[in-house]
Amino acid sequence: MKKYGSLVPLCEKDVMGRLKEVFNEDFSHRKPFITKEMMKYQTRHPKSSTCSFRVFYNKHMLDMDDLTTLDGQNWLNDQIINMYGELIMDAVPEKVHFFNSFFHRQLVTKGYNGVKRWTKKVDLFKKTLLLIPIHLEVHWSLITVNIPNRVISFYDSQGIHFKFCVENIRKYLLTEAKEKNQPEFLQGWQTAVTKCIPQQKNDSDCGVFVLQYCKCLALDQPFQFSQEDMPRVRKRIYKELCECRLID
Fold first, then answer.
1. How far is C-alpha 242 from the chain's CA centre?
2. Which pairs from 10-13 meet CB under 8 Å and 24+ separation?
3. Span 129-145, pLDDT tens digits
4. Cut 0.70: pTM above it
């Protein structure tokens, strides 16, 4: 139970599943006893005792302040977006490159030279899919780039289209192609607004939708989720971050 730092995402089903996994045995007949033990644990370990819980992955570190943004209807922060994006990228490293959520902000404020070194160790034009989270004040959107087809797409869970963001990325790609001596990518780019995608029905789940879009696109999975799935998706993302791996 300590593995997740908090009992927020942990339920009876989780414990039963973990026991079966470890002992290769069905503990359904012990359910009342297990429930009682869980309640004892909660009493002995109040949430305040989890304040020192940390998750480390590559250069990322999440604490409980970060992880609790996945609870209820909290807004996801940059730390959650960026570590989860790296988990996605590491699951399909030859195919996907995920840009840090500060990339677009840096591009806008400092221009190409401000982000030139961000791709020092990666050749974007050998990838299939680029994932670029966009954070504008209080809203998350997603820009994707299909490198082989030269298509820049915009995904938004409220149906908004920030044309200037797409144009910023188009100009960036042209400059990157010129700097990296990739003349075949200096023309032929198209932009698209992706419609008929799952939409949020509140003001707090935009970040969760962006991460779910990213995972589905990277793993070639259909968008079979909706607003009603968000509590489950939030819990799954919490576990994936704590375990430092994606869960099907």
1. 13
2. 12/38
3. 999 999 998 999 999 99
4. yes
Greatest extent of the chain over all pairs of C-alpha atoms, in Å:
67
3-state secondary structure of 190: strand
Neighbour-count burial of 224, counting CB atoms closer than 10 A to its CB (0-12 exposed, 13-18 middle, 19+ buried): exposed
Catalytic residue set: 139, 156, 206
Report yes or no: 150 and 144 within 8 Å, Cβ to Cβ.
no
Which residues, at least 6 apart from 114, have a Cβ–Cβ distance to it below 8 Å? 106, 107
pLDDT above 70 covers a percentage of the chain that reads 92
What is the phi-psi region of residue 129: left when phi exceeds 0, alpha when psi lies from -120 to 50, beta otherwise?
beta
182 to 23, 103, 175, 178, 191: CA distances (angstroms): 55, 21, 10, 6, 20
Burial class of residue 12, CB neighbours in 10 A (0-12, 13-18, 19+): exposed
